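User: Some background: our group keeps a shared notebook of sequences we're curious about, and every so often someone picks one and asks for a predicted structure to add to the entry. Today it's my turn. The entry only has the sequence so far, pasted here. Could you supply the structure so I can complete it?
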Amino acid sequence: MLPAKGDLSLEDWLQRPHITLAMRPDANDETEMALAARGLRRRLAVTLPHWSAAVDLLEGTDLVLTVAGRAVGPMRRHRTLRKFTPPLELPRFAYQQAWHVRQANDPAHRWLREAMLMCSQPGHSQNSPVRATS
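Assistant: Of course. Here's the predicted structure to add to the notebook entry:
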């Protein structure tokens, strides 16, 4: 059970079962590297390739998911879940796009990749239009 208010201590956070996000179960993400630098490990219970499935899996469990706050956004659908700051300093990281080689020259797919890149740039406003280019 999470405390009613506040965050988990590092010890409590490490003891809980965690969901990790990775394309491969043996991948070391920023959280694993930060823990390893301190000689620590967390209990990985589930490895999933995408955070949206992870959020759905959390409800009704004691699992912990550590992701960037902007990746989860508002949690109106999951009223019983809580957001809290991890009990250790984590480095900043860059988002990356990946696509199948078959899509590399598809004009619509290229437009989508460019639009996502533009939207992720510092200073981009949610109200800025994303224009199609040929």
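Suggested note for the entry: The mean pLDDT is 83. Strands lie at 17-21, 43-48, 64-65.
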